[in-house]
Structures are given as C-alpha cells and as structure tokens.
Design goal:
Layout (H helix, E strand, L loop, with lengths): L21 E8 L2 H16 L6 E6 L3 E4 L16 E3 L6 E4 L3 E7 L9 H17 L6 E3 L2 E7 L5 E12 L2 E9 L19 E2 L11 H16 L4 E2 L11
Parallel strand pairs: 1-2, 1-12, 3-4, 9-11
Antiparallel strand pairs: 2-6, 3-5, 6-10, 7-8, 8-9, 9-10
Length: about 240
C-alpha cells in the first residue's frame, strides 16, 4: 500500500526557478538495493531536467550500511543483518522498521552549489520537525547527526544524516528514529561514535505515529528549503522508475 501526502501546488520558487519537489511515501519495507537503484535513476533524470526533485519517505528491513569513512572495527556483528556499501558520506549506520528514512534528491546546481549548506538545512529540517513533538534536538561539533540531552545528562542520537552529491544532485538524506528496535544498533558502532547512545521518539515517551511524523516533515520542509510540496502519483513500495 502507498500513502500520499496532501495535494500541493506545482509552482516553482524564486530561489531555484524549478517546480516544487515531488513527495513519495512507500508503505512496507523497501529493499535497500532497490532504493539505491531508484535514487540513481531519479538523480539522472533530475540532472537531465527530465524529472522534478524528490523527497522520498520510506522504511527499510533491518540492515546496516557502510559510508565512505566506515571502519571495519565498527562492524561488531557482521552476520546479524545484511551489510551494504552505501556510497554516502559517514560511517556505519542502521536502518530498519520504525525508522523514517527520507531520501532527499535536490538539484544544488539550481540552488546554491553548497554541500555544507545542504547538510545544515537537513539538520534544521529535523530540528524543526522534532520540535513539533516537544523534542529538542541539537547539533554537536564533531558528531554527525542530531542529539538529545536526557534527564541524566547523557546525550543520545535520535537522527542520522548522510549525503552523496553527484553533478550537484543530492542522494541519500536523513534517518529519524520514531520507534525502531534500538537493540539492533548493538551490531555496529553507530557513525563511529562509541561514547554516546541512540534513542527514539518512543524511547523519549512520545507516542507518535509514522503518519504524524510524515505530516511534520512535510509541514517544516518549505520553511527550510523554500519550496511548496507537490504530490507525485502513487507508487508501489519500491518504485522501479523515476
């Protein structure tokens, strides 16, 4: 089954002159290789100006991905879940049910050609999304992702960020822990950071549905990226074409 976000305008923006990004939600678990193939095809179409930019919301089956800086020693349990080479920046991370992955395919050539600014916008997007659930998420120097301070003072990671850029089109994006099985993180050292833990909205006492998270992501996106959302025609759980 597939859920669609609310209908939206198809106008462009002064910042880019491009039409607004399409939004796609896949219900069910999307195999990671299919997600990579879909991103590759869509990015090529965006670069050729044959498709709109895309924000794709989905979940994966349990798996680990290795970024370009992944260290073998940080893969603690190599046989626990499938391990995929992601091609994005960063180290090892986990994806699985209960985690909202947002793949954000944007044309930076039509925006600002600034990868660091793109990462900063992704962080801001998640910070504003989490604020809607009364969760304060913060950046930390030298630690990728977004962090929350617990009552005992420890800091846990609630969202991961990893991007790849080819010919100024962005791949990959963010992963927000809504209600995943946090024990699945024990098979890796998440993002190579050993002295901090991971958390989720559910672990923080927020009983939030995935649909509510999707609504918040949609509502906060234009406040950061400057574009109204358009509705993409319904797709299956793992679309095979851009």
């Amino acid at each position: 089954m597939t859920r669609s976000l609310s209908p939206a305008q198809l106008t462009g923006t002064p910042e880019t002159g491009r039409p607004a990004p399409d939004w796609r939600i896949s219900d069910g678990l999307v195999p990671y290789p299919e997600a990579l193939a879909t991103m590759e095809a869509r990015a090529a179409a965006i670069r050729a100006d044959n498709a709109r930019e895309l924000v794709w919301l989905l979940e994966h089956p349990p798996l680990y991905t290795a970024g370009t800086s992944a260290k073998p020693a940080d893969l603690v349990s190599a046989d626990r879940f499938p391990v995929y080479t992601a091609g994005r920046g960063g180290q090892y991370t986990y994806h699985g049910p209960g985690q909202r992955v947002a793949y954000v395919l944007l044309d930076l050539a039509a925006r600002d050609r600034d990868v660091r600014a793109h990462v900063h916008r992704l962080e801001t997007w998640l910070i504003r999304t989490l604020a809607r659930f009364d969760v304060t998420a913060e950046r930390r120097e030298g630690r990728v992702g977004l962090w929350v301070v617990r009552a005992d003072g420890r800091e846990d990671k609630i969202a991961a960020i990893g991007v790849r850029v080819r010919r100024w089109v962005t791949f990959h994006g963010v992963a927000l822990n809504v209600e995943p099985d946090l024990s699945h993180y024990s098979g890796i050292v998440p993002c190579g950071i050993r002295n901090h833990g991971v958390t989720s909205l559910r672990a923080l006492g927020r009983d939030v549905s995935m649909a509510a998270v999707d609504d918040a992501l949609q509502a906060t996106f234009p406040t950061v990226f400057g574009a109204p959302q358009s509705q993409e025609p319904a797709q299956g759980p793992a679309p095979n074409s851009p």
